[in-house]
Amino acid sequence: MNIGVYIRSSTTRQSTVSQRIEVMEYCSRRGWADFKLYKDKCSGGKATRPGLDQMLQDIRSGRLKTVVVWKLDRLGRSLTQMALILEEMNNHGVALIVTSQGIDTSNTNPAGKLQLNVLMAVAEFERGIIRERVNAGLKAAKLRGVRLGRPRSLHKKTGAVLGEKKSGLGVRAIARKLKMPPSSVHKILKSADVN
Asked: Of 9, 10, 106, 184, which residue is the catalytic one?
């Protein structure tokens, strides 16, 4: 069996014993004695967690076909984060079983597939709303005259580039000497109208 069991507590002070007992009993009832345990002791809001990251890596490499968790919120706190995890599992044909909430997305359970599709539709809706908010914020910032993107820093090297050019060096030689991309040297020379 290619079974993964994921257990998470929010802090190091919290115990995962109750989760572990329920999930192990479920696996035992299904006759699954051979499974891999993934465990994290950190907030579910964190984007990267060692146990979850390893489990996702095993999903991508085809080592897992089923993931068992105690509650859905053990995988992630936000709907967006859950959507990404569920999408990853769905793309690789991995079933999700949530023991305490009656969710089973395996092919043998059409009700579980329906639940997963509803969850993913809601998550996709939330991602769309977040994208709209971000775009509206960027548009408002542009209207206020805010410059977006990384701050420009070429002006700091203009003097050095122009000095090296006066001494007779070419674009590539200047770039090597000042440890900067040739395109940046060219841009400085072009803006200073130096050939």
From this structure: 10
DSSP string, 52-64: HHHHHHHHHTT--
Tell me the pTM: 0.60
CA-based diameter of the chain, in Å? 81
Give 1's pLDDT tier (boundaries 50, 70, 90).
low
Known active-site residue 10: yes
Domain 154-191: which CATH number of 1.10.3470, 1.10.10, 1.10.1740, 2.60.40: 1.10.10
Question: What are the residue ranges spanned by the domains of the chain?
Answer: 3-127, 154-191
Instruction: Output the six-digit token pair for 163.
Output: 């000095």
d(CA 192, CA 77) in angstroms, rounded, equals 52
